[in-house]
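User: My collaborator sent over this chain with a note saying "see what the structure looks like." That's all I know about it. Can you take a look?
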Amino acid sequence: MKETDNLYEKNILHKFKDVLGEYCTINQFVELSKRCLVMEHESEIGKRQDFIALASRYAITLTSYNAEQMVNAISRSYIVNIHLCFETFLKDVYYQVKSYGKYSFKEKQQTESWLKCVIKNTLAENIPEDIKLLIELCEYYRLIRNTAVHDLYDFDSHSKEYSKLQKNNFKSNTKFSKLSAPNSYEKISFDDFVMFSRSCIELATYIYYNISYDYKKIVTDMPKSNIATLRRYKPQRQEKYLLAYINTRFRIDDSLNDQLPKLLDGL
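Assistant: Without extra context I'll predict from the sequence alone. Here is the result:
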């Protein structure tokens, strides 16, 4: 796994937050548009012929004129979008840990979710209860996403997982206290999108800051162009350059400063 020659490349957590922010903005705009449409054209979208006439005025031909069904599907599409961002981040973590992790790596099993696989490779056994709840939430919304995208003929509302979530008091959590979520598959709403996105950000941050890197592996995999640049500097400046290289791409811990001289000797 080779890194690019750009010293200022963002790490995987910053990339995830940037992309997620873009998707959240799109979801928010779609939600605003949907609410405006429903409020301003409530009577028209409730009758098929009036709905057809409304769509025709804006040169749009719809394949379905069931407004209620489409409104529900829009909310589930928010979950699909957020899951796409989060799973991309989890795959980035997976391949980073596989290439540069400090400890033995456990491959992903076919029936295992990316989240569960990343957790077993990054987090200790004593996971805090609030993090366990975020994992449970993200896994539930992953299943909602799967149903929304794949289960057209073998429908599964994942009511079992939903019932398990209901045992938690989400109103006691500041992040979720004002949200009417989580909801069942048929009632997924904008609040579910907010809950899922907030959970992903917090969980991704926790996972990233619990990755244990083997810095020797990272340095060994440095691009030749970066090594050539580093060698042009004096020893003290070399340490700063190497520290900056690692810090822009990976999480650094307190042990790195002591390792720098030995890492430089290996180049």
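A starting point for your reply to your collaborator: Residues 67-100 form the longest helix (34 residues).
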